[in-house]
């Protein structure tokens, strides 16, 4: 992964903190395993996994400041669910600051939190790696891990359903991209 220099590593570590940085390393490793298992480009999975949370800035004001610097257009969904901003912003930072111009990698970073319509296999792998990395611990994670070994679409449907059910149970807003992702996977599995 020569693209990622020591300077970039230190910068990301500074931006997102050690805890989140260690999570990105676990996501990267999980993403590479999934890619290997399903015959998908392992280097792309590695880079996307490594960078997926590069914009996960805890402080909301700072996050919004960065969004403005990188010309990220804040959609209604992003305003209503600010926790989804870091995916879209992460793709901008990966592209403009870290010179990643592979649209598949950028798409996977962008859609890792919400999912989206027409997800590629790489998009699914990064979404799932983020969902099931070894330190994740929530109701359903074991089932998501099991399905991720067998079928990406089945694993996606389970994970999206689980996420949507969780958000419903908390009366929380659901991003439209998440609904679109779920409907898209449902269509594939028919
Ligand atoms: Fe994230
Ligand atoms: Fe993450």
Automatic annotation (TrEMBL):
Entry protein name: bis(5'-nucleosyl)-tetraphosphatase (symmetrical)
Known EC number: 3.6.1.41
NCBIfam families with a match to the protein in the record: bis(5'-nucleosyl)-tetraphosphatase (symmetrical) YqeK (TIGR00488), HDIG (TIGR00277)
According to UniProt, the reaction catalysed is: P(1),P(4)-bis(5'-adenosyl) tetraphosphate + H2O = 2 ADP + 2 H(+)
Record domain HD: where: 20-135
Which top class of enzyme applies to this chain?
hydrolase
Report the Pfam families cross-referenced here. HD
Which keywords does UniProt give here?
A: Hydrolase, Iron, Metal-binding, Nucleotide-binding
GO molecular function terms attached to this record: hydrolase activity
